[in-house]
Request: fold
Amino acid sequence: AQKITQTQPGMFVQEKEAVTLDCTYDTSDQSYGLFWYKQPSSGEMIFLIYQGSYDEQNATEGRYSLNFQKARKSANLVISASQLGDSAMYFCAMREGYTGKLIFGQGTTLQVKP
Amino acid sequence: NAGVTQTPKFRILKIGQSMTLQCTQDMNHNYMYWYRQDPGMGLKLIYYSVGAGITDKGEVPNGYNVSRSTTEDFPLRLELAAPSQTSVYFCASSRPIWTTGAFFGQGTRLTVV
Reply:
């Protein structure tokens, strides 16, 4: 069955440092997509980055990069040069290619310290 | 371009009442989703749809119903509301091309008392 696991309920990082948020997944599909979303305290869901299961290169979007290790079924988010505005909840998500079903992990709360 | 619009934004229901949460998107997206988010928790998939006339259960469908008669609309029906359904409900939509992710509505905060 399709499953997403985020094992870090909360993380702290010093401003300007890099931080890695962990995500592992499980699916029997060969075709799937992995996503990261940010949810600030205001509650909206902000799309950050996407990685396809057939993509050979790790995805990058500005200060965000996705460390995709397919054999280990992990899709960790790396945020470089953390900013105070990065403090938020972060969700990893997976979409199955066959069904289109999109499910989310439990989330990681990131707090950036000045 | 409005994106995904959810109504209402807030609602208080009494136990046993019913209501429909509305979701409309104007991006001609095939895929639509309903999630619930309990405080401090992740999003749980309630129902989803891959196109008009097609719906399927997600992770937590009990107590809810959906319909998808048009591409634009994906209403979520709560029958016989219970306190356990107190949550924030998000509707989302996406294209078959995934690279831009799913677009989310602003959410509906529902309290059942």
Observations:
- The mean pLDDT of chain A is 95.
